[in-house]
UniProtKB/TrEMBL annotation:
<dbReference type="InterPro" id="IPR029050">
    <property type="entry name" value="Immunoprotect_excell_Ig-like"/>
</dbReference>
<protein>
    <submittedName>
        <fullName>DUF4352 domain-containing protein</fullName>
    </submittedName>
</protein>
<feature type="domain" description="DUF4352">
    <location>
        <begin position="65"/>
        <end position="158"/>
    </location>
</feature>
<dbReference type="InterPro" id="IPR029051">
    <property type="entry name" value="DUF4352"/>
</dbReference>
<keyword id="KW-0732">Signal</keyword>
<feature type="signal peptide">
    <location>
        <begin position="1"/>
        <end position="21"/>
    </location>
</feature>
<dbReference type="Pfam" id="PF11611">
    <property type="entry name" value="DUF4352"/>
</dbReference>
Length: 176
């Protein structure tokens, strides 16, 4: 009887230890920050223009604090964090929308941001804003992509419009 009790206790202990380890944010993620030095593109909003700079990309990102519903690695995926700065280089106000950013990968084009990374676990999300001439803003965008993706296989897009309301894309490849 005592052996069964010890085995049962050991089993509960191990199950608890594994459950706690699974709840430690970022415990099995690389959070590989890669600074980019020359990754930029001109972007448009009707007649207004701005420069999009990709400052860094963090591969296999996972927040260190807060909770995330699900772990992308369970499905063979990863979160990536893209830090950008947008600077209004024109004379007109530039209306910046975080939802206009998309990601192209080797497997899929036009991936929108994941909402699994949000204010509860990250406080640096790029906000939509109106930028006056010469103003800039910096923030992060978060995407969920295949774990096989790398800097060489991804590029950031900004979907804007020209003065004829035609789609115009500013694109920044991550590979340098």
């Amino acid at each position: 009887m005592e052996i069964k009790h010890k085995l049962k206790t050991a089993g509960v202990f191990l199950a608890t230890a594994f459950a706690l380890a699974a709840c430690i944010p970022g415990s099995s993620h690389a959070n590989e920050l890669i600074e980019l030095s020359d990754a930029s593109a001109e972007i448009r909003d009707y007649t207004a223009s701005a420069t999009l700079h990709v400052n860094s990309v963090t591969l296999d990102f996972f927040p260190e604090e807060g909770e995330v519903i699900g772990d992308p690695s369970d499905d063979g995926n990863q979160f990536i964090r893209v830090e950008v700065t947008v600077e209004n280089t024109g004379d007109e106000e530039f209306a910046l929308f975080f939802s206009s950013f998309l990601l192209d990968t080797s497997a899929e084009n036009g991936i929108g941001e994941t909402f699994l990374i949000n204010d509860s676990n990250s406080n640096d999300h790029l906000e939509s804003t109106d930028l006056g001439s010469g103003e800039s803003t910096t923030g992060a965008l978060y995407f969920e992509v295949s774990a096989d993706e790398s800097l060489d296989t991804m590029k950031l897009l900004y979907e804007g419009y020209d003065e004829n309301f035609e789609d115009v894309y500013g694109e920044v490849p991550f590979a340098q």
